[in-house]
Amino acid sequence: MKVLLSGYYGFDNAGDEAVLYAIVRALRQVKPDIDITVLSNQPEKTAQALDVKAVNRWSKGGLVKAVKNCDVLISGGGSLLQDVTSKNGIIYYLGIIKLAQMMKKKVMIYAQGIGPVNYGRNRTLVRKILNKVDAITVRDLDSRMELMQMGVYREIMVCADPVMGIPAEDIDQEAGRMLLVQGGMACDNTKPILVVAVRSWQQNEQLFGEVAAYCDYAVQEGWQVVLLPFHYPDDVEVGQKIAAQMKDANSVIVLEGNYTPRDTMALLKNADLILGMRLHSLIMGAVLSKPMIALSYDPKVSSFMQLLRQRECYGVDTVTAQQLITAMQRLANRSDKELAMMDNLVEIMVRQAKEPAELLLKLF
Is residue 361 part of a domain? Predict the structure, then answer.
């Protein structure tokens, strides 16, 4: 079976690279001899990192040839079909699906987070094109509802984000600690570690100020604060801006590496608490059974926290440092019942993360 993967790959975004890593891993588990090609912004890097074939996603000739040579096009995961970050980005992904359909290829939507899709033109295109694909799987109920509201009547399987399928036991905590030491943490550090993964957004100054004030509180309480970039190098600059607003910039570590998905998870495995605005910082945190506070800039963040029945989720436009402090204090006193409930929900999502790959093998 020759599979072509289309997604936001090769852009040095640890979350999206983790999605790709997880999908490739899942496909090889169900079919070890599967032939995988990835459309990537950095094809050489992607091919080397995952031992796959890779094609430049911007090469028209290469893209057409890759679609022609595949048996199945997999679109996903991640949030490809949305027009919040870009009005026209969605056209790229729908165009690849349409091209595959014109070439009579099988098409599967793989554990995507759908929406928001706000423009009428884009909603019409999603309805027309996705009603002709062969299988649709989404990562949450909100995505299923969004597709149904756009008029997609095909069967839609709700599963989980592919990253939920990465086993926590495969992640080397000591490797993450070494990266922390390389980033400036003392070798003999015994302080609890707060990892902060924040991205740039519309109300940057207000948001960064509140996060900085919260980090100041954490430092005063004896925490080691670590600012972890997910999208390189953009998030490094975000970390530097937050550190600059703290009372003592020397009390926080701003990591500046371009980390792989496994490196990122290894770093997070050392965390005692995660403050996450990046969705996949929270997904990775759930896999690793970490207490988490979420900053929601997009419905996908609040939706994920709701799936885990976690109430420590605050809108980026209104969050205050005091809310984050209160959330930290509450998480420190979670009951055994709360911990067990989250563990059970994560276990269910781990199983669901494997379902799209199993469905692919069953259908095609």
Answer: no
